Amino acid sequence: MPPIPFRDALLFWFKLGFISFGGPAGQIALMHSELVERRRWISEQRFLHALNYCMLLPGPEATQLAVYIGWLLHRTLGGILAGLLFILPSLLLLIGLSWIYLAWGHLPAIAGIMAGIKPAVVAIVIGAAWRIGSRTLRNGALAAIAALAFIAIAAFDVPFPLIVLAAATAGFIGARLAPDRFHPGGGHPTDRKHDGPAVIDDDTPTPAHARFSLRRLLKAACIGILLMLGAWLALAALYGVDGALARMGWFFTKAALMSFGGAYAVLPYVVQGAVEKYGWLSAAQMIDALALGETTPGPLIMIVAFVGFVGGWTHALFGPAALPLAGIAGALVAALFTFLPSFVFILAGGPLVESGRGNVRLTAPLTAISAAVVGVVASLAAFFGQHVFFAGGQLQPAAIAIGLAASVALLRYRVGPISLIAACALAGLVLSYWHA
Question: Where are the domains of the chain?
Fold first, then answer.
């Protein structure tokens, strides 16, 4: 088949950025439907091959998959533009929503809507823990790792990176003592068959630019590291090493490297740093961030832009007369340092990491980390629940009722997150006028 015109690919990635609702699973399903089933740009096996690789890496897997396929189709420039166009709509949308939230969020109608959305967010996080756990906790050893991770972060406030390190160590040891318990689970399998060849088919030779080369790996890695380091040094030179923007750059770089298991896995780390350590936003605002992330297209981890915007605005980085500009700067810094590592991972290390798949000694630490993620996400649900159902130190019956109804709708009737949040927002608005 003829190669895909570069212009057609760019239009597709830009369109995808506007319609990719539903979190990573929904975005991956949409890419599969468009690229494998409808357009036949890539075959089923090559798509899953790319997806399984992305699932081994820290960072947003849907974004990485877009970068990977864009890179496979149109070399490095294709990968970079595919990733940028995929995340650009959600970044711009969240910047606009963050501005509206801070400027007019105190109005009674908006406050009522957010009061209804917060319990829905708790239900969504519980649902995420359930989905990840049902896929990951296949035996007692992995369940024990999840339970210990929950206790460590919820009861003893152990930093998230230490939990990841401990889980990886357990997986490394477990691969030698009981390898059958640490085999990686399935990714996103499908039984569908497709007629006709794809542009990149099962037997299409690996393009020259995608073959492993140590020189290329080192070159791409060095360029990526220099870009991150240069951007951070520029922030430190302009606003000081201890300035909020330099701290955001360093913090969100670490967050990007800790995000095994998707956005929900890294949110507890973001809460620990952005809410509890640096005070860039409150716990209630963090819940609102997740609600906005669930109702906008693009990768869920883009809520870091909301965190950065609120942090820049509330700390008046450029003075009280330039609050929106400070918010935009914070959002851009948070997004840059969160997503840049993902581009480096794909463009530099794809073929190398891919060649190690199937070796349990290499994949067992990641399997153990995935199990720990279940406990960490459950702790996030407990953290959010405490601030929603016991706001101000008092029991909130209305919030509990909305939260229970949302949990049943999500887990029992499989209601989508957008419909769920819309219904809960309406309930909160009605209750706010009822009590007015």
Answer: 89-188+213-434
